[in-house]
Amino acid sequence: MLALAAKNISEADLPSIKAAHLGPLVELRHSGVQLQSCRWLDIGRHGQLACALESGVKWFSNSGAQGCVKVSQITADRRFWTEFAMRGKKAATQSGFAADTAGQLFAAIGELRDNICEHSENPASGYLIYDAAPGHFEFVVADSGVGVLTSLRSHHYYSHVTDAGTALNLALSEGVSRHHDDRGRGRGFRPIFVGLANASEHLRFCSGDHTREMMRAKDRGVLSSTRQRAPLNGFFCSVRCVQA
């Protein structure tokens, strides 16, 4: 995507790719790529989900293994969240995750949804997605709002921050939010995933032209990195979990 945005390559230069995980596929779509028009991309079993994302409707697969809903739909009717969470938890447990872990997954999704409502300045653009398979669970929470950098800089304490990479690193730290003076609110994103420490395999946060990734190493340690990517509107988070 970075090479395409810089016009160093064209879509014609891309090799044929078959989508496997949910996160990268939805990130492409969030970056402005029309998934179903990409001749080089085979979206495989995610076809119906891609259609639902484009139409903006609440959707669940017949098996219940995939689902998506817009934040605006939840805001209008709380029952949309209840249905999304109940179906998603069931999909997670059927995929082999413990009920407690399934609950923690959707507690994290709920926290991120609340973050969109509080900080994005465009909550209507937000959406939530999950995808379950045996021993595997992924979710995406994203919006096309102002992004992490602009949100942090709305408080004078963070006016010195000038790039999205620094803003992401700050937002993922304890005690940081645009409500700097309210110590009860600036918990950052990191505490959301404390309960998922044994299940999360790959966490990816994107905003502006940077991404922050955290990956589980073979020794169960966490490898993290922040690097540049093609510009992306708002905030994008994808989390992939495997059965511990």
* Share of helix, binned: 25-40%
* Gross morphology: globular
Structural class: alpha+beta
Proportion of residues in extended strands: 25-35%
Run of helices and strands: HEHEHEEHHHEEHHEE
Q: Low-confidence parts, pLDDT < 50 over ≥5 residues?
A: none
Distance between the termini: 32 Å
Word description of this protein:
It is a single chain. The chain has 244 residues and is of the alpha+beta class. The protein is 33% helix and 26% strand. The protein has helices at residues 2-5, 22-30, 47-55, 71-76, 79-94, 99-119, 147-153, 164-171, and strands spanning 17-18, 41-42, 59-60, 66-70, 127-133, 136-143, 200-216, 222-242. The protein has a 6-stranded antiparallel beta sheet with strand order 3-4-5-6-8-7, with helices on both faces. Strands 1-2 form a two-stranded parallel sheet. Strand 3 and strand 4 form a beta hairpin. Helix 5 packs antiparallel against helix 6. The radius of gyration is 18 Å and the shape is globular.
